[in-house]
Amino acid sequence: MITAADLLDHPRGRRFCLELVSGVQQPDDPAAAAGALAAVSLSVPTEDDVVVALESTADSALWWQPADATDALLSRPELRPALTRMARWAVDSPVVRQLAEPQGGAWTVEFDDEDEEAPRPSPGQALRDWARAVRGEVAQGDPGVASGDWWTTPPWPLVQTTRAPFPSAGPLALWAVEDSFGHGHARARPAPADAAARVFTVDGPDDWAALCRRWPLDVTTTTRRNDWQLATGRQGTWVLPDWYAVAAEYDVVHLTVSGWLRTSGDAVTVDDDRASVVAGWTPDSAYWLTDHELGTGMWAAWSRPGNSGVWRRHD
User: Is the pTM for the entire model greater than 0.85?
Assistant: First the structure.
């Protein structure tokens, strides 16, 4: 479930409210922007409206550069009344509620530039290699470059699945991608369910903070510090979850749609000294940290014209 307060209090939530209203010219002046948002007509959003809005919201999550100017503007107190109206309108929509509570099975997605024949190490080996590489970066210290790895997702080739809240638009991994490459062709197939899987669910910043406190990996001496400081304005110690250690107790880590809206874009306080970020995640992503089938059944082809807009399946 997503509430109006969830949308109002977090960067991606506020951006989603704005993106749901197409064609709004956003002045740089806060007072003028507040007036423009207060005057906009709020019609009933369609599934396609929500798809495009969430895609734009995710694509504007840039964790390697200073905070987006539009996000900064939307955080101004002058815009709060107008955004409150929009947030209440958004969460009253059955379509938006359907997005936040997707039903049905999960899917794996591969884009057209991925090498399907590339050898895939086992999850255990991939996590060991990843942990070793990150600790190597930490031991090396600040390399003196401004940017590098900024995402906090588990590493390739762990299986990632998402659900399809609107079947005609396909799985969320097709279109709700942070800092995407603008793909236009992909394929997807159903992912097998496992009722016995041990799942760690991230439904908000408290869950992410708990994950980082339980399995912290300090990355302050890597380029992540530079990227995350630029994106959030925070200086200090940074950690991310040690996915190799998490895999000893959990099979899956799942970031819900609501969890993404509540968390992506903020510096998440872990304790008095440390913070973390949810960066590079697609909402509703479930990453399998242990062995799991890539998918079952036939692949279905998906595409969209001009590498933008709503995806459609080719039967």
Answer: yes
